[in-house]
Amino acid sequence: MKGLNFFFFLFFLLLNLHTGDTAGSCGDPGIPSHGSREQTDFRIRSKVFFSCTEGYEMIGSAERMCFPNGTWSGMQPFCKPIQCGNPGTPSNGRVFRLDGTTFSHSVIYSCMDGYLLSGASTRLCLANGTWSGIQPNCTTVTCATPPAVSNGVLQGSDFEWGSSVSYSCSPGYELSFPAVLTCVANGKSTSPIVFVFFTAKFCGDPGTPAGGSREGRSFIYQSEVTFSCSPPFLLVGAATRLCQSDGSWSGTQPRCIGNRFEVEIMVITFHKDKRGNVAIYSLSFFFFFKSTNSMQGDKYNLLAG
């Protein structure tokens, strides 16, 4: 009889060891990753409570009780990251980088060529399952209207990305270099306006007539020069010349000539043909200028019948 009692004692002892109730407890139920547990009493009918850290949600039983058979009620809990879902893509934009759609992960946006990002370029997945901020927009790049430039005229009125405008000159002026401005992706023009300038047309040195003088040292558009002759010379040609918009001087080139001269017909030559008829004669004119004591002349051949 004593042997039978000892057998039952061993049976119940092994049963209690198998269920974990060696001292009326259920054993340690563990702590989920990214979570925490309240209570450290694992005895029969004791309860433990679980929770997850911010950004995680619990899957399983948040509360468990130790049964008399040495097991815990419910399911072993674990903490799962909060899911924010697809953050979306703005029109005319793209997702530049996405490292995940769960808590603490981020998305970075960028825009297609010709568009500028309006709003935050980065959004974070928050603990409440939403993305931070609002989705940004991609707006068409538009450059500022180029400023008016002295002595120049703006050609073109389209200032959006990829468009070009240029400057032309007012009459009498020319560009220092080709001025074509193109609106680029950053919303600025390709050529700084400060370097766009216009220079007046240059007519060149009009010269000074021999025996005379000139007043005026500027030879650019709308400049005026005047000429005069020293006595006793007389001015022949334009006394005043103006630099014109096409880069030429108005009027004719002036010269100074003597005011007294004598004309002499030095040679009169007659020629006869084989029949004895007068065919050709020539005249030589010589002009003697007393003021300069010089002579100038020309010879003219004339046909007579």
UniProtKB/TrEMBL annotation:
Principal place of residence: membrane
CDD domains associated with the record: CCP
A Pfam family reported for this protein in Swiss-Prot or TrEMBL: Sushi
Keyword Membrane among record annotations: yes
Protein's cellular compartments: Membrane
Keywords tagged on the record: Disulfide bond, Glycoprotein, Membrane, Repeat, Signal, Sushi
Xref: SUPFAM superfamilies: Complement control module/SCR domain
Bridged cysteine pairs (disulfide): C52-C79, C111-C138, C229-C256
A single cellular component GO annotation: membrane
Ranges in a coiled coil: none
Sushi domain mapped to chain residues: 24-81, 82-140, 141-198, 201-258
SMART domains noted in UniProt: CCP (SM00032)
Signal peptide: 1-22
Protein name, entry field: Sushi domain-containing protein
